[in-house]
Amino acid sequence: MNILVVGLGLIGGSLCKAMKKYTYHTVAGSDLNHEIEFAALRDVAMDEAFDGDYSKFDLAVIALFPEAAERFFTENAAKFRKGTLITDVCGIKGEFSMRMKQTAEANGLRYVGIHPMAGKEFGGYSNSTAELFQKANFIIAPFEDSREDDIEKLRQLALEVGAGKIVITSPENHDKMIAYTSQLAHIVSSAYVKSPELGLECGFSGGSFQDMTRIATMNEKMWTDLFMQNREHLKYELNTLIDNLKKYSDALENEDAEQMRSLIAEGRKLKEDNLRHRVGQPN
Question: Rounded distance, CA 157 to CA 180, Å?
């Protein structure tokens, strides 16, 4: 395919590098910062910088923050060749995807959203790598009336760049699950580092501290956009967590060791069951 990638940050840049390394697609890249385009050309991460002609692409991947992705597509949808497949890599789908689909259909285009579950503590093209998607989960979020061949094109592309488990689900279910598996964890990490002890942790921390705080370096603009667009699902998960934490706090307050043991055992058993279930799941 002839593929355009709009936005050469961590995900867009990594996607370009992965496609050039592992596929035979022709890749054009576009970024508002032309120095990044030059860097990508020097790295042979793409075949060409976007020249302004939207009509020659089979697939366009919009790798921008949600608000910017929607604005870009609204402003440029009419410039694409009719029938072009459009996708985005945003961590929100739901109503966002519905608006993208409406814009696509109004301009004779096709749209199916994707969400590669891959990232790093730090973003930007300088941190991109062709190996970012290796064995990563990869979500495709079509609508009921999406074309099977469009879904298959995206599935094949995911496999080509190294994805592990590929999940095909609705935009709404995507948002429900991502609120729990990703967005809640980012909120917890951000809150966790606000202890006054943070500056004193050196020499006292191990893997658990690193695991809990790694994603606190998230980009506040992008994640605020994601949180607010998925606020109903995220509120439910956050309130559930707060309710569960209160039980541990009450056990400490009441010096109730038996209740604490029970709470810990409950969590252990749930995680053990989860791990057994994962082992039995096909890739």
Answer: 27
148-177 b/e (C-beta count within 10 Å ≥ 16 → b): eebbebbbebbebbbbeebeebebeebbbe
3-state secondary structure of 142: coil
Q: What is the pLDDT of residues 238-260, one digit of tens each?
A: 999 999 999 999 999 999 999 99
Q: What is the CA radius of gyration of the chain?
A: 21
Residue 154 and residue 140 in contact, taking contact as beta carbons nearer than 8 Å: yes
Q: Which residues sit opposite 110 in a β-bridge?
A: 85
Closest to 17 in 3D by CA, of 45, 48, 49: 45
The residues, ordered by sequence, that sit 6+ positions from 98 with a Cβ below 8 Å of its Cβ are 171
- Say whether 169 sits in a helix, a strand or coil: coil
- Could you give the CA distance from residue 113 to residue 169 in angstroms, rounded to a whole number? 10
Distance between CA atoms of residues 43 and 19, nearest Å = 13
DSSP 180: I
3-class DSSP state of 59 = strand
Nearest-angstrom CA–CA distance, 198 and 269: 31
Q: Is 140 helix (H, G, I), strand (E, B) or coil?
A: strand
Task: Report the candidate in 215, 118, 235, 104 with the shortest Cα–Cα distance to residue 175.
Answer: 235
Q: Which is nearest to 135 in space by CA: 156, 123, 110, 117?
A: 117
- Packing angle of the helix pair 148-160, 10-22 (nearest 10 deg): 80
Mean pLDDT on 127-142: 97
pLDDT per residue as tens digits for the range 159-213: 999 999 999 999 999 999 999 999 999 999 999 999 999 998 888 888 899 999 9
- The label of the residue with tokens 């985005």 reads 88
Q: Three-state DSSP class for 88?
A: strand
Q: For residue 77, which amino acid is it?
A: A
Residue 6 DSSP SS3: strand
